[in-house]
Amino acid sequence: MAESTKRFKASGGDLFMSGGRYIGITGPVEQRSVESVRKALVEIARAGTQTRIGLRSSQSSATWAFDPVLRRDAVREIPGPSNVAGLSAAAESVRRETGPKPSFQLILCGNYLFFDTDHGLGDGKLLVDLITAVDEYTSTGTLGAWADTPETRHALAKAVFRWFVVRPKHVRQLVRVRSAFREMRSASSSEPPTDTGLLPWQPSHAVSFAVSPGSVETELRQWRKHNAPNVSGALLAMMLFRKAFRAVGLHATDDLVVAVDCRRYLPKKSVVNGNFVLGMSVPIHSETPLDDAAAALSAAYESGLPLAWLGFASAVTRVRRKVVTVPVDTVPAHPRMRMMYTDLGRPPTLAKSKWVVDEGRMLTGLLDTAGPEALTIMATVIDNDRTFSASFHDNVFPREKIEAALRMVTTDPIALLTDQHRTERART
Questions:
Q1: What is the 3-state secondary structure (H, E, C) of 297-353?
Q2: Is residue 126 within 8 Å of residue 52, measured between CB atoms?
Q3: Residues 126, 172: one domain?
Q4: Kind and range of the H or E element at 375?
Q5: Phi, psi (degrees; rounded to nearest 5) at 215
Q6: Do the domain assignments include residue 300?
Q7: How many domains does the chain divide into?
Q8: E-strand stretches of 245-289
Q9: Do 132 and 199 share a domain, yes or no?
Q10: Mean pLDDT score of the chain, rounded to an integer?
Q11: Does a structural domain hold residue 373?
Q12: Whole-structure pTM value
């Protein structure tokens, strides 16, 4: 059993992300008792620092305490929702709670589980692994290999060495990509707002959910096959949201922030349960041709641009040895949305979850955004359905416009694509 006095050296990425939170949500699944879930979490925490939930994150130090004895409030229960709107309200209520919070808590909300997590503990991979571990323990009384597998030491340094030192051609590619991005930004026709006034502001975390059913996803795959074969499903979804937000009258910056899992730059057997994802800013706006957007992303991935930025951000944070945050208390009178897109794909382990419905299965979440003007789209696929969540501040962007955009993307996405496709054909 791990000692409660053990100390843990947080990575630069963990320290950089600490203080922010996300609420990962899965369901509807079979209801479990508070005690059965608590027992599972106790065993997961006891396994060691690699499972993360016994860590006590801190923004003021890179040395974190590890205590596998979970607080009593680490597991609790709240009333379950009767519909998707009720699920949003429940998640918002948890996020808006005042006072100190544990670094990790699991909340039972009817047939849904809320994994309320300090982002310093880990990213989306940790969320999926914890869901899987809780499922397995409450079903079989045992933990899988993940809980006992130690993390790879010095993973970021190894990734940087492997990608840039062993393969120096990537450094030259990196320089070319950054130059190309600068040219794309300088060629943008977007103009900054003329009214630069500021208004008082305080956080008002909000989230809306929508499910794109299998029939719509099939229609999109067919459209992509015939019209944009070089474009991934994730990129197509990003562009759909760019177009939908514009259609409902929400103005956005020209750059799109894409969450990139930098584990792609590590050897296959490497294990990183902490933060290894970077938000990469790419000059892709609503009118960028699909093939151009695909080429820009592909070049950035191949060059290692996300890894370079992750290394830079981690190094700066480790040198400072703490995170210095200045509370934001104003917002522009005419905000421009800074959209981020994060895609967890299709986690294979969730196929074994004890779902209670055949349709509407969800892995989703409410994520803290990077400021009042930021909005984060989270996407996952369970079976044939794709779930989207939009995390934002509802005192900056009207909820009705966010939900109208979600409906466009999940009910008639082809209509959003048709005009751009006609325009691109005319250019060629």
A1: HHHHHHHCHHHHHHHHHHHHHHHHCCCCCCCCCEEECCCCEEEEEEECCCCHHHHHC
A2: yes
A3: no
A4: strand 374-382
A5: -65, -40
A6: yes
A7: 2
A8: 256-261, 277-282
A9: no
A10: 92
A11: yes
A12: 0.94
Look-up of token digits 């070319």: 176
What Å distances lie between residue 19 and 32, 258, 370, 412, CA to CA? 29, 21, 12, 38
Whose tokens are 């607080």? That residue is 71
Q: Helix 233-247 and helix 399-411: axis angle, to 10°? A: 130
Flag whether 156 is in a domain.
Answer: no
Angstrom distance (rounded) from CA 286 to CA 370:
21
Mind listing the pLDDT tens digit for each residue in 31-79? 999 999 999 999 999 999 999 999 999 988 889 999 888 888 899 999 9
Mean per-residue pLDDT, 352-364:
90
Q: Which residue has the tokens 């079976």?
A: 383
Given this model, what pLDDT does residue 216 score? 96
Domain of residue 91 covers 7-148
Q: What is the pLDDT of residues 123-132, one digit of tens each?
A: 999 999 999 9
Q: 28-42, 139-153, 310-324, 357-371: lowest mean pLDDT where?
A: 310-324
User: Are residues 296 and 236 located together in one domain of the fold?
Assistant: yes
Q: Which residues of 214-243 are buried (b: 16+ CB within 10 A; e: fewer)?
A: eebbeebeebbeeebeebebebbbbbbbbb
What mean pLDDT comes out for the span 128-145?
95
Q: What CATH number does residue 355 fall under? A: 3.30.559.30
Closest CA to 273 of 117, 77, 106: 117
